[in-house]
Write a structure and sequence with these properties.
This protein has 589 residues and is α+β, with helices and mostly antiparallel strands. Helix content is 35%, strand content 20%. The chain folds into three domains: 3-139, Creatine Amidinohydrolase, Chain A, domain 1, CATH 3.40.350; 152-293, Creatine Amidinohydrolase, Chain A, domain 1; 295-585, Creatine Amidinohydrolase.
């Protein structure tokens, strides 16, 4: 079917269902950012492949909403004759519904929306109608089958804490709150709690399933039994029962009269609706695994350092190779990303990329989450910017790093150097910050923006996101973003530091390292505990884009010290040619 035929077929299904519209989120039943092909409903319907979005389909009009990372991509991938394109922050879906659908019946799939999100949409004056089956699935005749990768134990040498200990601690928190059980719909929480990993997603090692954690420390894992081989059943132990997903309704009905925690932001509305119908008391509260998962234990912290040190060798090999090849021409975006992946595949404990590399030359670098395709793949030309944002999944840690490179052989223009240096100054300002305990990510977002703001410039994405431990490269609950929840930063959290600047049609600049939150040394007369960051990423900055005269003495000293650290840690692990390039790249400014 053509895009127009798909939209028309969906509208026919909505008429049969007796609703005036339908919500199509970019989500699966676990409400995560990354979904399997079988859940790519938004992409199938609209053509938009970004990792965040929502479509609203009415009988006479339709709109797709996404954030600032994807507005350019949305315009490129959707047909304006079929879809209105909207910025989800500047023009929220609730406002669009209020204007175009007030008083109408809008259908939704209760497996694909959290209750909190539905409450915000209901404020638009529409009647939200849960549908027993997703009408889009009725017309998606060639929909891929759900993934069936096996669940595997995550060894204690990487997890750092036994699953029994995690279950006991989390169950104690439920007892303290007077709750009998908690619903876990986030597959990341299940992976962390039970020390298991899987292969249901291409870049995030998850087992897609659901769990009930009880206040006595026992748990039920709802996945297809064929996904749990004997070694994993033995790893889970007798206190964890494996049940097919079809048993979920009966398991929830059995909680009648019990107090059950449900995270309204991270759990499909189906769970709360089913529990209430069964006579259970639904207690709204955050997923009890979310914050403990974000605060990496000492073994996970050591694993992150080790993973970044090994990843740095692959990065150095790539950067040295690119510096030699780019000025000659002949490289393409896909070829360059493939070469970096090839270097990473030679690194110990490598399992996969942590996301598809963003490999954007020239104007493609201005598309924040650009994905090179055979159709869009273009040559990387001499004397232009090239942005490479990539990462890897290792058994002991997850990496994510961005560098913006100058292809040479000519000199970068002065305005470009000034903007790159402003981004670098913001990056340094956040990395070097000391701050009191209790401060949250949204409080620090502006620190990285100040040098750009002084030039009248900005960027339309958050400054940083949380990162998991051999889990998702985008992990909550903490983030450096004005729109994030004010979750206080805590020791053991790992977040990205990635300010940027994007000139549409010309180039993009982004510089990204991962930071580990740690206790700060006490100062004389200090009145409260302070925290600071440890930089995990080890890769030189593009010195040909740095304008040293625009750096303060302290900033210049920090870059020189960072480069000295990179050289000392990485060069001994590299081949002679890469080490020679690294010495030049890491020389004092």
């Amino acid at each position: 079917m053509t895009p127009a035929e798909r939209l028309a077929a969906l509208r026919a299904e909505l008429a049969r269902a007796g609703v005036d519209g339908f919500l199509v989120p970019r989500a699966d039943e676990h409400l995560g950012e990354y979904v399997p092909p079988s859940a790519e409903r938004l992409a199938w319907l609209t053509g938009f492949t970004g990792s965040a979005g929502l479509a609203v389909v009415l009988a006479d009009r339709a709109a797709v909403f996404t954030d600032g990372r994807y507005t350019t991509q949305l315009a490129q991938q959707t047909d304006p004759a079929l879809w209105e394109r909207r910025h989800i922050t500047e023009e929220p879906p609730a406002g669009w519904l209020r204007q175009h659908a007030a008083g109408r019946r809008i259908g939704y799939d209760p497996w694909l929306h959290p209750e909190a999100g539905l409450k915000r949409l209901a404020e638009a004056g529409v009647t939200l109608v849960p549908l027993p089956a997703n009408p889009l699935d009725a017309i998606w005749t060639d929909r891929p089958a759900p993934p069936m990768a096996p669940a595997r134990p995550h060894p204690l040498e990487y997890a750092g804490r036994p699953a029994e200990e995690k279950r006991a601690e989390t169950a104690a928190a439920l007892r303290e709150a007077g709750q009998d059980a908690a619903v876990l719909a986030d597959a990341h929480s299940i992976a962390w709690l039970l020390n298991i990993r899987g292969g249901d997603l291409a870049h995030t090692p998850l087992v897609l399933g659901f769990a009930l954690l009880r206040a006595d420390g026992t748990a039920e894992l709802f996945v297809e039994p064929g996904k749990v081989p004997p070694e994993t059943r033995a790893h889970l132990g007798n206190a964890v029962m494996v049940r097919p997903r079809a048993d979920l309704p009966a398991a929830l009905r059995a909680l009648a009269g019990r107090r059950v925690r449900v995270d309204p932001e991270a759990t499909p509305a189906w769970f709360a609706e089913t529990l209430r119908e069964a006579g259970a008391e639904v207690v709204e509260g955050e997923d009890p695994c979310r914050l403990p998962r974000a605060c990496k234990n000492p073994v996970e912290q050591a694993g992150a350092r080790a993973a970044h040190a090994r990843d740095a060798v692959a990065l150095a090999r790539f950067l040295a190779w690119f510096a030699q090849e780019a000025p000659r021409g002949g490289l393409t975006e896909i070829a360059a990303a493939g070469r970096l992946l090839g270097f990473r595949r030679e690194v110990a404990l490598f399992r996969a990329e942590s996301f598809p590399a963003i490999s954007g030359a020239g104007e493609h670098g201005a598309i924040v989450h650009y994905r090179a395709t055979p159709e869009s793949d273009r040559p990387i030309r001499p004397d232009e910017c090239y942005l490479i944002d990539s990462g890897a999944q290792y058994l002991d840690g997850t990496t994510d790093v961005t560098r913006t490179l100058w292809t040479g052989p000519g000199e970068a223009p002065a305005p470009l150097r000034a903007r790159y240096t402003a981004v670098l100054r913001g990056h340094i300002a956040l990395a070097t910050l000391r701050f009191p305990k209790g401060v949250a990510g949204p409080h620090l977002d502006a620190v990285a923006r100040r040098p750009l703001w002084e030039m009248g410039l900005d960027y339309d994405h958050g400054t940083g996101h949380g990162v998991g431990s051999y889990l998702s490269v985008h992990e909550g609950p903490a983030a450096f973003s004005r729109t994030a929840k004010p979750v206080p930063l805590a020791p053991g959290m790992i977040l990205s530091d990635e300010p940027g600047f994007y000139l549409p049609g010309r180039y993009g600049i982004r510089i990204e390292n991962l930071l580990l939150v740690r206790e700060a040394p006490e100062q004389p007369d200090q009145t409260k505990p302070f925290l600071e960051f440890e930089t995990l990423t080890l890769a030189p900055y593009e010195r040909r884009l740095v304008e040293p005269t625009l750096l303060t003495a302290a900033e210049r000293a920090w870059v020189d010290a960072y480069h000295a650290r990179v050289l000392e840690a990485v060069a001994p692990r590299c081949d002679a040619a890469t080490a020679s390039w690294l010495r030049e790249a890491c020389a004092p400014l």
